[in-house]
């Protein structure tokens, strides 16, 4: 049996290389590492994902692939803040507050419905709602303290329109809305803080899909 964790640690997440990549074009940044991640996912998960849909967030964790985050992250090294009866790590919290303030000026009221989930909570969610509505334990972005479900943010709302137009400016992306590989239904309310660099990549990569949704929402 292949030791996928060993392969990943050696070849797929060399943080020093990530930090040293000075490529300015976000569509080309970390390209070799993204190709490796694509190969890894094909071998481990049996899913083929074009490297152009794969990237790294500000924590050097993958975006755009099924990934067992709990095997590789140590959240105890991050400072977190209590917010809306939930919690976020400090950079995500600061970006959330900035986005919330900006939205309120335009009557886009942003409040957190839920955020962090531990493994036990994710087991409960999957057992209750099934794999069309919840990721496998370990794979949920809600484990990261960087992901929120936004209250009253349906796919036909003005709030969703505002977020699609502006959230990337604050480092947030609708990471389960445009994913090609995910079995999870589209979730307009699910937003992950990835940092401004990664959010710019995501917005550029899915530009046509963003524009189509924005046009659709403007005509509702």
Task: Give a quick summary of the entry.
Residues 1-21 form the signal peptide. The protein is built from eight helices and eight strands. With 220 residues, it is of the alpha+beta class.
Low-confidence stretches: none
Strand order of the largest sheet: 5-6-8-7
Q: The CATH topology of the largest domain, please?
A: Muramoyl-pentapeptide Carboxypeptidase, domain 2
Described by strand count, sense and barrel closure, the largest sheet is: 4 strands, antiparallel
Strand element count: 8
CATH architect. name of the largest domain: 2-Layer Sandwich
Structural class: alpha+beta
User: Helix count?
Assistant: 8
Tell me, what's the shape? globular
Q: Into which percentage range does the β-strand content fall? A: 5-15%
* Overall pLDDT score: 87
Total domain modules: 2
Measure the end-to-end span. 52 Å
C-alpha-based Rg, rounded: 17 Å
What is the CATH class designation of the largest domain? Alpha Beta
Order of helices and strands: HHHEEEEHEHEHEEHH
Helix coverage percent: 40-55%
Keywords: Signal
Pfam family, one: VanY
Protein name: D-alanyl-D-alanine carboxypeptidase-like core domain-containing protein
GO molecular function: peptidase activity
């Amino acid at each position: 049996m292949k030791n996928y964790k060993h392969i990943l640690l050696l070849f797929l997440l060399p943080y020093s290389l990530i930090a040293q990549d000075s490529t300015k074009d976000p569509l080309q940044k970390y390209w070799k590492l993204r190709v490796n991640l694509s190969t890894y996912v094909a071998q481990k998960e049996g899913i083929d994902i074009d490297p152009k849909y794969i990237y790294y967030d500000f924590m050097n964790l993958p975006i755009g692939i099924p990934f067992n985050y709990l095997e590789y992250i140590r959240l105890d090294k991050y400072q977190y803040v209590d917010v809306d009866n939930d919690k976020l790590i400090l950079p995500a919290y600061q970006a959330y507050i900035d986005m919330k303030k900006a939205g309120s000026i335009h009557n886009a009221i942003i409040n957190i419905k839920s955020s962090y989930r531990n493994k036990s909570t994710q087991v409960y969610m999957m057992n209750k709602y099934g794999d069309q509505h919840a990721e496998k334990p370990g794979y949920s972005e809600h484990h990261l303290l960087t992901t929120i479900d936004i209250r009253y943010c349906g796919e036909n709302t003005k709030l969703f329109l505002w977020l699609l137009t502006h959230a990337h400016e604050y480092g947030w992306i609708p990471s389960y809305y445009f994913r090609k590989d995910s079995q999870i239904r589209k979730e307009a309310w699910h937003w992950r803080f990835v940092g401004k660099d990664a959010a710019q990549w995501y917005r550029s990569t899915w530009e046509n899909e963003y524009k189509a949704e924005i046009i659709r929402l403007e005509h509702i």
